[in-house]
Write a structure and sequence with these properties.
- This protein is 15% helix and 41% strand.
- It is of the alpha+beta class.
- It has one domain: Alpha-ketoglutarate-dependent dioxygenase AlkB-like (Jelly Rolls, Sandwich), CATH 2.60.120.590.
């Protein structure tokens, strides 16, 4: 397996360190970065288990009426077969496996919130990322917490205010938890910038609350 890069190697002056009591956003929402909540050994084991056992599929997006497949791969799990539509494609949740159930319980205990679904993204290297967007689809509970667990390569994660365009960023480390709360989705965009310096894979798990329509 390709070694995961040292987070310090991609830190910049705009980036925050772990401190769950600090709000990374200056206004209009709350984002807390807990840092690693898994030991290095446990994070390695979870990464390997999810990489091997999750039925990964290329994501699909609709651009100018054309349906395209991405190199990034995804999977969607939940308490029920919830439907979740984004980028013009509807996905239906798979039942939790043992690894995801254990991670869900840990994240709920750590974040003080509950979740009924999880979207997983597999980025094979830094050539794959995510452009500016908000997690504000109609199926998601309004202003509910969204917990993001990162496994694998440390990656920069950025926020941009929808009105003022001010930005801030954090480096998401192997085994680390970030939680977006309150009106953060209403007022802020977020992205995972691409970087040719990143050669190792990353799995991102975003635990959410779906309101079935």
């Amino acid at each position: 397996m390709t070694p995961f890069p040292d987070p310090a190697s991609i830190l910049g002056s705009e980036l925050f360190g772990p401190n769950p009591t600090v709000n990374l956003l200056p206004r209009d929402g709350i984002v807390n970065y807990y840092g690693p909540i898994l030991s290095g050994k446990d994070a390695d084991r979870s990464f390997a288990a999810l990489l091997a056992d999750v039925p990964w599929k290329s994501d699909e997006v609709v651009i100018f009426g054309k349906r395209l497949e991405t190199a990034r791969q995804v999977a969607w799990f939940g308490d029920s077969t919830y439907g979740y539509t984004y980028s013009g494609t509807t996905r239906h949740a798979l039942p939790w496996n043992a690894e995801l159930r254990a991670l869900k319980q840990l994240i709920e205990q750590t974040s003080g919130a509950t979740y009924n679904s999880c979207l997983l993204n597999l980025y094979h290297d830094g050539n794959e990322g995510m452009s500016w967007h908000s997690d504000d689809e109609k199926e998601l509970a309004r202003d509910a917490a969204i917990a993001s667990l990162s496994l694998g390569a440390a990656r920069k994660f950025s926020f941009k205010h929808k009105r003022t365009a001010e930005t801030t960023s954090v480096t998401l480390e192997h085994g680390a938890l970030l939680v977006m709360r309150g009106t953060s989705q209403a007022h802020w965009l977020h992205s995972l910038p691409k970087s040719k310096k990143i050669t190792a894979p990353r799995i991102n798990l975003t635990f959410r609350t779906i309101h079935p329509l």
